[in-house]
Amino acid sequence: MLLAIDIGNTNTVLGVFEGEKIAHTWRVKTDARGTADELMLTFRGLLDGVPVSGISLCSTVPAVLREMRTMLSRYYADLPTVIVEPGVKTGVPLLFDNPKEVGADRVVNTLAAHHLWGGPVVVVDFGTSTNLDVVSAKGEFLGGALAPGIEISVEALATRAAQLRKVELVEPRSVIGKNTVEALQSGIIYGFAGQVDGLVRRVVAELGGTATVVATGGLASLVIEHCETVEIHEPDLTLIGLRLVFEKNQG
Question: Would you call 105 a catalytic residue per the annotation?
Fold first, then answer.
């Protein structure tokens, strides 16, 4: 089985593939202070009994990536491993002013989106930040938009506003909140849905008026049912992209 690892700023997602099918997935908290030995204990606990035959990973957290390299060389040195970074074959042309600035997760999402739906595609990734990744009909990464993520916005609001606090991220009874909690929930859920719709419509207009719009990321399920522009929800998009990158680099 191939183990795919997506290390994000907030969560790390692991998935194991049987061929092209995802057999199991796990989501754990990303700890930038974790050591290679602590990572090994976490991974072995989750993967107990899973016959891993290869590893593909990407990371947006340099400190964790450093410890992951150490863990892999120490405990999984016998497994073929692909880390998405400069020099690794992805087949994704980066039409960006400075390609080195493009996060590995955005490259992987581009690859997976083009593989699954062709193009053009707009990928909306709801994570620590809300990313819009724009994929051309040729599978090129054209750029996109970055905005503060849902959890970051909630935390900032609770920190900076004395009479406001963190709330459970669920749909309120109505858009017009009848108390502080519902008012916050309305602003967060419907506000982010409106933000995504506004950005997507502008992006699609620049693409010529047509594109497939796909949502992914750990927080997508909170918002997408209220988005008018999102057509497809694929929570495992990054893991699928990691599988494709592994195949490209392992022949």
Answer: yes
